[in-house]
Amino acid sequence: MELRHLRYFVTVAEELHFTRAAERLHIGQPPLSMQIRDLEAELGVALFERSKRRVTLTEAGERFLVRARAILDDAAAATEEARRAARGELGRLRIGFTSSLPYSTTLPDLLYAYRQRYPDVELQLTEMFTDAQLAALARGRLDVGLVRYVGGAVAEGVKVREIGRDPLRLVINAAHRLAGRSSIRFAELADEAFIAFPPGAGTGLPALLAQLGRRAGFEPRIVQTAREATTQIGLVAAGLGLALLPAPLECVHIPRVRYLPIDDEGAHFALSVAVRETDTRPLLAGFLEVLEQLRPQAG
Questions:
Q1: Nearest to 96 by CA among 277, 276, 225
Q2: What is the pLDDT of residues 219-240, one digit of tens each?
Q3: 119, 148, 161, 262: which has the highest count of C-beta atoms within 10 A?
Q4: Quick one: which H or E segment has residue 246?
């Protein structure tokens, strides 16, 4: 039994006339009658009662019609679902992002635009440090990562591409002697105490802090570590030191805290997209296409 047999049967059952059913199906009436007889023979029951004046469904035919319609509807739904999946319109996409991105327009704009275009794709979002995202991608636990990559080794099979840059800001207590400046050069901070992410946190900011300090001729002095950027801002408000964070976090308004632009070359934090090299699924391709269209507004 094939789906075409069910379509032939349902059409005849709806028309209760073999000639009209054949016209709807764009086949000849004799071949249609033969197909219905073959179906009845396979089932071992009569589906129609035929006379010279009319065609009616038997009790078996009535019951078979309900199931046949359901099977055809399911087959049509399965076909459409498979085609939509092949177009990247269905499925689940696992996305990693760093903690600073929700404070920028990049992540909200990207997710909004993607959901407008692909409303039936399930998004599984996970906030993770960059190193954790890269490891999860390599293990197949993420599909795409929005990372703050500053260089270094990447697991085999994972590729990283820069898509934007955010300027860095010096987070400073409003009572600090330099807080009134419109901008700052790193060489002016040689004697200052810094609050930073702990070693091994998986973010590139400690490396950038060290790099900017060394270019300015000193090694930054870390007096306190904190894993959350907002915690660092709070510690700056408490007067424990200065912090180096990406500009999108300027929207975090805490009393006694200011954010100063940094004039030094290289005082920016790159935003990159990371994926597995072998992942060519339309689901991911659709996400990357939306991201590419938003790039002029990104970072």
A1: 276
A2: 999 999 999 999 999 999 999 9
A3: 148
A4: strand 242-246
